[in-house]
UniProtKB/TrEMBL annotation, chain A:
InterPro entries, per the entry: DUF2849
This protein's name: DUF2849 domain-containing protein
Organism (species): Bradyrhizobium iriomotense
Top-level division of the source organism's lineage: Bacteria
Source taxonomy: Bacteria, Pseudomonadati, Pseudomonadota, Alphaproteobacteria, Hyphomicrobiales
Pfam families linked to this entry: DUF2849 (PF11011)
From TrEMBL, chain B:
Alphabetical list of Pfam families matching this protein: NIR_SIR, NIR_SIR_ferr
InterPro entries: NIR_SIR_4Fe-4S, NiRdtase/SiRdtase_haem-b_fer, Nit/Sulf_reduc_fer-like_dom_sf, NO2/SO3_Rdtase_4Fe4S_dom, NO2/SO3_Rdtase_4Fe4S_sf
Protein name (Swiss-Prot/TrEMBL): Ferredoxin--nitrite reductase
Domain Nitrite/sulphite reductase 4Fe-4S: from-to ranges: 119-273, 408-547
Every Nitrite/Sulfite reductase ferredoxin-like domain range: 52-111, 346-397
Amino acid sequence: MTSPLEQKKIKIAGPSIVTANRTWDGIVVYRTAAKGWSADLSEAAIVRNSDEAKALLAESTADDVGAVGAYIAPVQVGEDGKILPGNLREQIRRTGVTIGSQAQV
Amino acid sequence: MYAYDEIDRTLVNERVSEFRDQVKRRLSGELTEDEFKILRLQNGVYLQLHAYMFRVAIPYGTLSSEQLRRLAHIARRYDRGYGHFTTRQNIQFNWIKLAELPDALADLAEVGIHAMQTSGNNMRNVTSDQWAGVAPGEIEDPRIWSELLRQHTTLHPEFSFLPRKFKIAITASDHDRAAIKIHDIGLRLVKNEKGETGFEVLVGGGLGRTPFIAKTIKHFVHGRDILSYVEAILRVYNQYGRRDNIYKARIKILVHELGIEKFSREVEEEWQHIRNSSLQIDDGVIEDIRSRFSYPAYEKLPHMPDELRQAAADSDFEAWRKNSVFPHKVQGYSIVTISLKPTGGPPGDATAEQMDALADLAEKYSFGEIRVGHEQNLALPHVAKRDLPALWKALDKLGLATPNVNLITDIIACPGLDYCSLANARSIPIAQELTRRFANHELANLIGRLHINISGCINACGHHHVGHIGILGVEKNGEEVYQITIGGRADENAALGSLIGPGVKFDEVADVIEDVVEAYLALRERPEELFIDTVKRLGVEPFKERVYATR
C-alpha cells in the first residue's frame, strides 16, 4: 500500500491500470483503452509490462483537464476477464471506506 | 466570540471571488493541475483517495452557533452529511466537488469562515486551548494573541512560501491542552516579575518521520514584542530552512542541526534589527482585538444548584458528569466536553444533524458558543451547572453523551487509508475496534486516564508519538502492520513514546492493546497511578515482557 505519491520508478510486476480522480468532482476514475476515463474498473485498459505502463501513464497525464493525480495501480484479472483491485488501497478507492459508517453512500 | 471587522470580511469575500475564477480557469483547462495545485492548497483543497477533501479553519477552535450551523449546511449541501474534526482545530469534508467549492466557500464567508492557512507551505491556522477564556487560573485569554498572530500572518507574503508548513499553538494555562511542545512554535503566556504579560517561546517541536519535542528558546518575550520575535524566528527559518528535501524542511530539523544555542543566537541577531520597528505592538492594538471578543454576561449562580444535587442520584448522569464536566473560572458554570468518540464510531466525526442540534444546544445553554479541541472533541464553554442535567439528556438523545472523555476510548485517530492518499494503513477501524473492546464504562474507569493515538502513516497526523499508547500503521510486503509505542504524552511534560516490540497485523492490534492494559493493571502500584506514570516508573521492559511473552 505504499502511496503512489512515492512512486518513483515505473516497474510493474503484473497486470496494472492507470487510475486518477476526475477533475470537476474528484471521483475515482480509470483510464480506458479508448483514451477516456471511466468510473467503472471493468472498463480500464490493462497494461502488462513497464513500457506499456509508461505509455498509458504519459497519455493519461496529458489529459490534465479530464482527471488529476494519475498513477499506475496493480489489478488482478480473473480467468473470466474480471478486473479486481490489486491491493487494499485500490479496493478502498473502488468500494468505499471500510468503517461502515455514514460515509458509505 | 470574535467579531470580524470590515477588513476581515472584505478579505474573505475577495478570496472567494479569486478562487471562483481560479476554479473556472482550471475546469476550462486554462490552468494546468500543476499551476492550480498551489492555489487550491491555499484554499484548503486537497486531493484524497476518493475525492477532493476540503479543510476549513476554525481559528483557535472557537465557533458560534451560526457558524456551526453553516458547517452542517456544507456537510449536507455539498458533501455526504458529515464532517470530520481534526487534531488542529479544523474541520474536513471528504467528498466535495471542485466545481462546487467556490459556492461552498461563499456560503462559509457569509458567517466569517474560510479555508485560508489550512494547507500549503505557509503559516497554518493558529491553534489554542479549547478552554481559552474560561479555564480557571489562566493568565489571560490566549485567543487575543492567537487572533493577533492570525491577522499578522494571513496572506503575509514572507510567510506564504516557507520551506514547509508552519504551525503555532498558544496556551495560557499551566496544564497544556494545546500541545504546544509538538508545534513549530509553542507559546506559553506567562507573567514576569513586574506582572507584565509575555511569552515563554518554544521552537522546533513536531512529529512526522523525525519527531522532536520543542525547546525553550526564550523564557520571556514581552507581549509587545511577540510579533517581531516570531517574525525573527520565521526569518531565520526562511533563510536557512532546507528547500531541497521535503523530509528535512521543517524548522525542527534546522533547530536540531544548528543546535538550540546557535539557532537562538541567529534569532536574537535578527530580532535586534526588527524589534523596535512597526512590529512592536502598542496596547491599543491588543485592546482593540480584546474588544472584538464578546464575553458572556454571566449570572451570579450557586456553586451547587438544586438541579445538580437532584440529578446526582442518576448513575448514568453522574458517569457522564464525572468524565465530561470541568471547572469553570466563574462560580456556578462549567465547561462541558462533548465526546465525538461513540462506541464503534469514527473519532472526530459529526453528522450535519448533530452539528445543527449542537448549535441549538449551544444557544440554549452556552451563550451560542462552541469550542473545538485538538483531541477531536467539541466543548460548550459556558454551561450553568443548573442546566447540566437537561443538557446531558439532550446530548444523550443525539448520541453525544458517551462518558469517555480522557479515557481509553477517547481515541485520537487520523483518517488513515480509508480516506488519505498519503496513508499506508487504516486508522479508524483500529479505533472503532478498540472502542468496542473497552466499551464497558466500569472497565474504562478502572483503567483511568489513558490516551491512545493512531496514525496511518509516518506523517503522524494522529500524533501517535505522543499518545500514552501510540499506534502507527505502516506497510510491509503489501500488508498493514502496526507498531505500538507507550509512554508518550502531549501535555506540559511532553515526551515521545518508546516502541514495545515488533509490529503486529491489523487484526492483532486490539489484542495487543488489551495485553498492554492488562499489564498496566497488574503493574500499577495503586489505582490512582495513571498508565503514563506506571510507564514512567517502570520503563518499557515490563510491558514488553508481558505483551510479547506469548507471541
